[in-house]
Write a structure and sequence with these properties.
Low-confidence stretches: none
Order of helices and strands: HHHHHHHHH
CATH architecture: Orthogonal Bundle
CATH superfamily: Tetracycline Repressor, domain 2
Number of strands: 0
Strand content: under 5%
Number of helices: 9
CATH class: Mainly Alpha
Radius of gyration: 18 Å
CATH topology: Tetracycline Repressor, domain 2
Distance between the termini: 50 Å
Largest sheet: none
Mean pLDDT: 91
Length: about 200
């Protein structure tokens, strides 16, 4: 990796941490410059604008999510085992932010920030979320093919319910500080699986 790429990567890493506590709109070029030892003009040379920096943070968060949640789950056998692996990884992803004391998931945070806005940043996040829900649906379809999930089940409904469980868990962990958040999320997950399984 060239020096410019290393610098850009280091800035994005720092920005990811800040976005998890301050949100995408809370990212400040001045704050990032002081934290990374760069000048403001140096930072602008790498990103061009605050919006491009925010896009880089969203892309990096999504890439990290895929690396930590999705790809490891794909190593599990197709079917319920893969869906369980995905959910386990997803819970670990959410807990990782809690353990590290660096705020919440920057992707979910961005969803709350951008839901009523317009523009390229929201469009990027919407594309990412549609791809994510489609990934869950494909895993549910895989479980239909293995015969573990009934053929009449609406895969989009299952993806919706699993996303809802994760959102509720994030809310209960980071806002309410409910120690029962994960057990409740896992119980809800098992409830969905028992309803749709053969």
């Amino acid at each position: 990796m060239r020096k410019g790429e290393q610098t850009r990567s280091a800035v994005v890493e720092t920005a990811l941490g800040l976005a998890s506590t301050h949100g995408l709109h809370g990212l400040s070029i001045g704050d990032l410059a002081s934290r990374t030892g760069l000048s403001k003009s140096g930072l602008f040379a790498h990103f061009g604008s605050k919006e491009h920096l925010q896009e880089a943070v969203l892309l990096a968060a999504a890439e990290r999510f895929v690396d930590q949640v999705v790809r490891p789950a794909l190593k599990a056998p197709r079917g319920l085992s893969r869906i369980r692996a995905l959910f386990d990884n997803w819970m670990e992803w959410l807990k990782g932010y809690e353990r590290n004391g660096v705020g919440g998931c920057p992707i979910l945070g961005a969803a709350f920030e951008l839901d009523d806005q317009t523009g390229p940043l929201r469009d990027l996040l919407v594309r990412q979320q549609r791809e994510w829900l489609a990934s869950i649906e494909r895993m549910v379809e895989g479980a239909k093919l293995t015969g573990e999930i009934r053929a009449d089940i609406d895969t989009a409904q299952v993806a919706f319910e699993l996303q809802g469980i994760a959102l509720a868990s994030h809310f209960l962990v980071h806002l309410v500080r409910d120690p029962m958040a994960e057990p409740r999320a896992r119980a809800a997950f098992e409830g969905v699986l028992s309803r749709v399984s053969r």
